[in-house]
Amino acid sequence: MSISPLQQAGAIARKPWVKRTLLGLIAFAVLFGLFGYFALPGILKSQAEKLVSEKLHRELRIERIEVHPFALKLQVHGAQLLEADRKTVFVSFEQLAINLSSQSLLRFAPVIKEVWLSKPYVHLERRAANQYNFDDLLALNKDQPPKAGETPARFAVYNIRIEGGRVAFDDTPARTQHLLSELALGIPFVSSLPSQVEVFVEPSFSAKLNGAPLHLTGKSRPFTVSK
After folding, report:
1. Residue 39 reports pLDDT greater than 90
2. 30-53: b (≥16 Cβ within 10 Å) or e
3. Residues 6+ apart with CB under 8 A from 56
4. Which residues 6+ apart lie within 8 Å of 177 measured at CB?
5. Count of CB atoms within 10 A of residue 91's CB?
6. Which one-letter DSSP state was computed for residue 38?
């Protein structure tokens, strides 16, 4: 008398070691989901705010972070980086969504299949001759010793989109203001992986500068070494 595949599967599932393995996998999935949904967002938020404060000596405020562990997706809501006075907003955005690809495990490098940035804002100010509101950040970069001989980090980022951006520039000595509004940027992908450094990307850019429309397109190989 022959045994059907369903009966064979049932017989295997009744074995003790199979039961323990299945229970272990289920327990791991539950713990992974609980940690990703409930614990990890708070850890990322506090560590990001602390790290930026230590490195840039500026306050970073994040409204909330969402992590979707099974979808490999991260969302940051309501971020603000303040100026040195801890009052004026220097950089902000409404939402940042990052979707990680499972190919990262195969390539041993981060592969991000989508990055979406909504309503970013940057405030620039010329306060006096050769004096700007970001001079302290430039000074931090000058203090870093040059690192020669380092190879570029391996990564690939696809479907980069920026929507609804604004860049405000206040020229205090000249008593003028300039505004780059309705900024939209699209980049199909950027990669430093060896198999993709020779591939051309065709970005698109559009915005309004003081109300006048701008539209740019191009083609580049961002990680190819020029000869």
Report:
1. yes
2. eeeeeebeeebbeebbeeeeeebe
3. 81, 137, 140
4. 168, 169, 170, 171
5. 17
6. I
pLDDT of residue 49: 97
**What confidence tens digit (pLDDT) does each residue in 124-160 have?**
999 999 899 999 999 887 766 666 566 667 888 888 9
C-alpha span between 139 and 136 (Å, rounded)? 5
**Alpha carbon of 174 to those of 124, 127, 171, 209: distances in Å?**
14, 10, 6, 18
**Cα distance between residue 100 and residue 111, in whole Å:** 6
Position 147 scores a pLDDT of 63
Which pair of structure tokens corresponds to residue 54? Answer: 């230590």
Q: How far is CA 204 from the centre of its chain?
A: 19
Q: Which residue is it, tokens 């004096």?
A: 131
Q: How far apart are the first and last CA of the chain?
A: 74
User: Residue 183, Cβ neighbours under 10 Å: how many?
Assistant: 21
d(CA 224, CA 148): 18
